[in-house]
Amino acid sequence: MFLAFILLSSLVTSSPSTISTLEPLSRSSCDTLCHCQDDIVTCPDNDLDNIPHDLNPFITKLELTGNSIKYISNMQFYPSLEDLDLSWNQINQIKSDSFSESTELAVLNLNHNKMGKIFRENFDGLLNLGTLLISDNELDTINSDAFSSCQNLQTLDLSGNKLHSLGSNTFRGIKSSLRELNLARNLLGSIPKRQLLNFEHLTILDLSENQIKFVKNGDLEGISPGLMELRLSGCGLYSVGDSGFYGAASLKTLDLSNNGLSEAPNTAFKYLPLLETLLIGRNSLRSIRRSDFMFLGKLKHFNLDGCSENSFSLEPGAFDHNTNLESISIRCPSLEYISDEVSLRHLPVLRNLSFHGSSLATLPRSLANFEDLQFLDLGSNPLLCDCSLEFLYKLLTQPSAVEVRGYCQQPDELRDRQLIKVHDSDYGCDTIKSEGDGNLGLIVAGVLGVVILLAVITVCIFRCWSKKPWNLSIHLHNKRDPPKKRLSRTFSGDKRDIRVIQQKDLAGDDNRFLPLRGLECADPEYVNFDHNSNASEHLYVEVAEVTETVPKYNIPLTNVNCPDVKVSVI
Prior knowledge:
Layout: H1 2-33, E1 35-37, E2 40-42, E3 61-63, E4 71-72, E5 83-85, E6 93-94, E7 107-109, E8 117-118, E9 131-133, E10 141-142, E11 155-157, E12 180-182, H2 193-196, E13 204-206, E14 214-215, E15 229-231, E16 239-240, E17 253-255, H3 266-269, E18 277-279, E19 287-288, E20 301-305, E21 313-314, E22 327-331, E23 352-354, E24 375-377, E25 383-384, H4 390-397, E26 403-405, E27 408-410, H5 429-466, H6 469-480, H7 535-543
Parallel strand pairs: 2-3, 3-5, 4-6, 5-7, 7-9, 8-10, 9-11, 11-12, 12-13, 13-15, 14-16, 15-17, 17-18, 18-20, 19-21, 20-22, 22-23, 23-24, 24-26, 25-27
Antiparallel strand pairs: 1-2
């Protein structure tokens, strides 16, 4: 009995000391090292070398970024934890069973640490982990089945490491759940097709900034039937096989920026019928041609941020086949001019147009349906704010105003003035119009004067001409000349058989023949003509007027409208 009393007294006396020992530590962690609010605790940049164990065991979020923690252990103290951030520490080890009680943990951030390898036992117990971030470590080895305990993992970030290759079973156990996989900024020499096969729900795959020089035919085949976003930026990519995108028919976003492509891989694009967003800047493209992107009929957003350093142009017919485009962004210092023949007016839903960071001094008014835009970005261009850009003022003042960005660089009086602060009179169009009207008036007056002068000269010449002596002699000569007459249209013989002669004895012909006036004026060369020649025909045509009659041969007239009879020797 006495012994029991002593034990009870000892327990009673020791309890307060134990409690007093724990409580100050707990208060100290929250009061001096961490910020504690309800079930959220943050302890950033406090040079902690381990995870505090004296916090509220029911916390759901713990942030320990920017400390000097070197390993993870004994996370059993916080079984209700849902979000654990251990980024920017010096962690190089995860002890076994550290997360054996962390069945509620959904987000684990281990970015910017020093983990070189990952083993299967590192994540045992994380049955409900949805997001695992292990970027920018020194990771070069991932053991088989390393993530198999994370059966509900949806996002895995392994970017910024030293992975040359992946094991065949690296992703076993998570292929039915994973939706986003980030392998950017590693040392992969090609698309790891075999390791990426048969994901059931993978929608985002990031392979940017690896050493993938080629996309070979079939590289994307069989990865995932629902792959919607593929990033291949900064890989040094300069060739895509004709069927390089085969198997990615559900793709909606493709990033090919910052590579070595000299032209758009149009043949491969035919396997991307649903593509909506294309990023293809910082390549070696020299132009956008009519045939480019012709298979991307669903394209909505086009981004070309950077281009060939030598030259770049938009050719007539650009984006002819992309009538669903809603935004076009072209940032190209070598784009100095856009031809009037280039038109984007066939794009009915275009709302955002940007040439920010290009070298344009002006913009053709006929380029686009500017009044239908919501946003026009001409920033960082050497704009010449003259009459050709007056339409920008109208866009800013129309009832549904367009947001226009940019600054004038010329003329000097408008240098560095925002377009929204340039008035219509500043563009100088009124002066140009008034000068043009004055010049037009001078031109009209000059033309009218020339016409009047020519008319006066013409009248004078005509009057002088009509009073010349030779004019009068010609007129008299024309009066004396007998009129000329050709053969009747109803003559049915051969003109070669007709000779015109003059009857010498007119007294004894019973007035049947009449003299042919005009033969006395005949040219001498016709006097002794050959009767077998056709000269008489010409003589007749040139000098003779035939008086026609019907000789008294009692020839019956069968038709009242008799044809003329030529008196001649046949």
